[in-house]
Amino acid sequence: MSLLDRVRALLGDDAVEIAGGPDAVPRVAPPSPDAVALLLGTARQEGWRVRLEGAGTWLPADAPADLALTTRRLDRVPAIEPQDLSATAEAGIGCDLLRQQLADRGTWLALDPPGLAGRTLGSVVATATAGPLRQGFGAVRDHVLGVTFVTGDGRLVQSGGRVVKNVAGYDLTKLEAGGFGAFGVIVLVHLRLRALPRADQTFVLEGTREDLTQVAEDIAAAGLQPAALELMSPALARREGWALAVRLAGSAALVAAEEAGLRGASGGRFTALRADEAHGFWMRAAESFATRPVAFRTGGLPDSSDELLDLLQHQVGDEWVSASPGVGAIRWAGDTTVDRLRRLRRTLAGLEVPLTLERAPWSIRSAVGHFGAYREGVGPLVAGLRRTFDPGEAFVVAVEGSE
Amino acid sequence: MITAGLVEGLAGIVGARHVRTAPAERVTYARDGLPTHRRVPAVVVLPGSRDEVIAVVRLLATHGVPVVPRGAGTGLSGGALADASAVLLVLTRLNRILGIDPTNRIALVEPGVVNARLSVAAAPHGLYYAPDPSSQTACTVGGNVAENAGGPHCLKYGVTAQHVLALEVVLGDGRVVELGSPGGEPWGPDLVGLFVGSEGNFGIATRIAVRLLPLPRAVRTLLADFMSLRTAGEAVSAVIASGIVPAALEMMDQSCVRAVEDSVYAAGYPRDAAAVLLVELDGGSDAAVTADAETIQRVLQEHGARSTRTAADSRERERLWQGRKKAFGAMGRLSRDLVVQDAVVPRSTLPDVLETIARIAATYQLTVSNVFHAGDGNLHPNISFDGRVPGLKARVDTASAEIMEACIAVGGTITGEHGVGLDKLRYMPLIFDAESLTAMRAVRRVWDPEERVNPGKVVPVHACREWSGAAKPRAIGPGSAERDRLGAADPGAVPRGSWEDVPA
After folding, report:
1. pLDDT recorded at residue B328
2. Which of A11, A17, B88, B263 is the 20 to 30 A CA-CA neighbour of B230?
3. Cβ neighbours of residue B334 under 8 Å, at least 6 residues apart?
4. Which of A166, A175, A300 sits opposite B183 (nearest CB)?
């Protein structure tokens, strides 16, 4: 029996899209977590190689595989609990649709990941791609209370739970958040929410990078706690010069006080954006990262942001770059080569700064890897975890690269 | 096997006076903060440096002897107890703060640093360490990492996992690995996140980099009292729904209030109230915190508070907090023994769950006092009893199990910050199916293939499946799919005793 016949027999005709991707790899869309488990259990038995896809808008659908497993039919939101500020959503729901459903219930997921609005929740969690709101609300993992995932040999595993505090058992959720699918396919996510902020204001200041870096330091010194504090390259901000964008979100009293503090710290130089302008500003910046062939993030110390931006400018250019100086995170997008990425990663490693490759064509991902080489002693741990959750090496994920 | 030669070897590493073998010395370490579990270790070793930790762990690995790491022993799950086959590795001598970087708001500490001492050391820089377990004047950062400890102010600032950036870890075979980075971005998968809360099963953290936060410039502390537990529980949800996230939102019931007021920690809580809420707001702006406090005060009044008052000054604030933080100690006066639970429920179910707990207490004729992190839904029902009374311990066990089952039934979990340890092993199959428990055990074996580091904790081995070869493809059943979508195992549906046991 052919692969397609086998899959149709397992999941039905409507789960299979023949020649789904540009490379004619058949795309399978299981309709439930159990169907994902069934498919991967069979893949393990048959030795099929599987690549994982969400909406197909972030990582290119180009990894060589026998079939592509897309989560796009796992798009239900079984629970939104405004009183508990939690929700349960399947991994294939688009972030835009989820955000709307949450807003209708007065709740908010304080994540603004890079990419197109329809990126799936599972993609955001699996790649741990937080956006500027990381400054005020933390990394992706801080918003995830628990996950259900399917291992490479078709086992459904639960981790965490639905409540906002939970230390029962080992926290496998942390492994899945940012694991790029190497440790399982996330099928269900329990989320920590916030109440929709009563006030939400964005302010932008344009200038030279040096000037804006100083302003960002002044804002931190003033004790302000913005939801986002982002230094953006001109192309990304669609401005003449560099832009420092500040987002304040919370109660009306908090935002009013922070706005006054912002004025004081900057000499009143920021321009307030209207709500629609602010929405467009942040959305366009997020989408820009999906329009370049390569994107990566670095995680340095807050006081090293300026030095790291210089380094990026020197080695790979700084046309599309966004830095959160308050937390030391930088995201870069553009066009570059395997050799340049390797050289940059080596340089950064010397500075104790990790570089995580977020998106790139398979030719680059497979050579450079999302993570690259590990520190001494860590490789065997990661390899052991991969063997545990994908014993047949079904998942085609470029974790380490080929260097 | 622990031999005289091994003990000599340990003494050769740490010095003879840091190896305890006399029964009277070892019995000191037979319990943690939870009095209901008792295990006397074979040997107690107190290394004084990371190099000594490494050498001790390597020596024990050579001899195949289990090792149990322990901090100050303030844990509440029996997690840091070692039996007669194991060596207890006490880390309290590794108590140096290795550095504070005020610019990047990071501290590097050894595991035996006492939690509160870190905040004292950071204060001159205008910084503090946010996780604040009630035992913070005694518990260690290493213990906090092992348990993923919480505390009242974790409502706004998150639990320990959100504050640990990087770790140096000694694995069970003595290898040393560095995880994470000072900036918080992992080198690869998030192994720091996986390690935090692993209850000592994955290894021993010997260096810990933590995030520090700026000291809030403004703080307001409110006390509200209620004439029914239900009303107080409903007010908690109303506060959270207001969109303002308090730094802390704590509840104490009447039994707890009276225990505190009868003790040296008396805080001026109204003794006739059915429950009191302690709410704290903080931030960088006095005007914003004042306005938000007024909003919260109004919400509390609109949702049934009999009275509310704001601490007039820092002295009154400290007094209100001392009553809360010393409540466990005050309850020690109620009776000879005390069992504390640590369940978490969805906040909206607090009113119902509190009434259920009261019913269970009445059924078993027990005194149950509640003092807990209401904003997180993290309950701490305390059962006071005298273990010498025949049959009473069994009643306490039964009531504890019923409380736990009631919490699980509304979508809750069995521990929010104390950990599983020994105490909650029996409840793990109520919230995780065999596949998930087996996955956890498999992950533990990646870090510690011999399962020699803190053996017998966290994952009940009898509930695990054999996990080798491919999983058998299963038929798609509407029942299981529904369960997966809801994301919580139905305790009534968990098959018990039907799995294939894995030899320990």
Report:
1. 84
2. B263
3. B255, B259, B367, B369, B384
4. A300
C-alpha span between B282 and A219 (Å, rounded)? 18
Residue A89 distance to chain B (closest CA, Å): 8
| pLDDT of A138 above 80 | yes
B97-214 belongs to CATH 3.30.465.10: yes
Q: Of the CATH numbers 3.30.43.10, 3.40.50.2300, 2.120.10.30, 3.40.50.300, which one belongs to the domain with range B4-90?
A: 3.30.43.10
Task: Supply the pLDDT for residue B491.
Answer: 35
CB burial of residue A155 (10 Å; 0-12, 13-18, 19+): buried
For A253-278, how does the pLDDT look when each residue is reduced to its tens digit (9 = 90+)?
A: 999 999 999 999 999 999 999 999 99
Cβ contact, residue pair B288, A35, below 8 Å:
no
Residues B80, B421: Cα–Cα separation, whole Å: 8
* Residue-range domains of chain A with CATH: 3-70 (3.30.43.10), 79-195 (3.30.465.10), 199-228+244-287 (no CATH), 293-361 (3.30.70.100)
Contact yes or no for B185 and A161 at CB 8 A: no
Task: Report the residue of chain B nearest A105, measured CA to CA.
Answer: B241
Q: Measured between CB atoms, does B295 come within 8 Å of chain A?
A: yes
A206-252 pLDDT tens trace: 999 999 999 999 999 898 999 999 999 999 999 999 999 999 999 99
For residue A213, list chain B residues with Cβ-Cβ distance below 8 A: none
Q: Check if B218 contacts A (Cβ < 8 Å).
A: no
CA distance A207 to chain B (A): 24
Q: Is B165 on the interface with A (CB under 8 A)?
A: no
Q: Is B322 on the interface with A (CB under 8 A)?
A: no
Largest CA distance in chain A: 72
User: Residue B244: its chain A contacts at CB < 8 A?
Assistant: 250-251, 254
Contact state of B190 with A141 under an 8 Å Cβ cutoff: yes
Judge whether residue A70 has pLDDT over 50. Answer: yes
Closest CA of chain A from B270, distance in Å: 28
* Residue B126 to residues A221, B101, B209, B256, Cα–Cα distance (Å): 11, 12, 18, 34
How far is the alpha carbon of A240 from chain B, nearest alpha carbon, in Å? 31
**Does the pLDDT of residue B207 top 50, yes or no?**
yes
The pLDDT, as a whole number, for residue B357 is: 97
Domain map (residue ranges) of chain B: 4-90, 97-214, 218-329, 425-489
pLDDT tens per residue, range A169-204 = 999 999 999 999 999 999 999 999 999 999 999 999
Q: Which helix (H) or strand (E) holds B62?
A: helix B50-63
Please report, rounded to a whole number, the percentage of residues in chain B having pLDDT higher than 90. 86
B-chain residues within 8 Å CB-CB of A374? 187-188
How many residue pairs bridge chain A and chain B with CB atoms within 8 Å of each other?
Answer: 334
The answer to whether B230 and B109 have CB atoms below 8 angstroms apart is: no
Task: Give the closest of B190, B283, B433 to A174, CB-based.
Answer: B190
Domain B218-329 fold is: Alpha-Beta Plaits (3.30.70)
* Residue found by looking up tokens 């798009």 in the block: A75
Residue A161: predicted pLDDT: 94
Cα–Cα separations (whole angstroms), residue A249 to A135, B191, B268, B282, B415: 12, 31, 36, 16, 32
8 Å CB contact of B484 and A33: yes
Give residue B331's pLDDT.
86
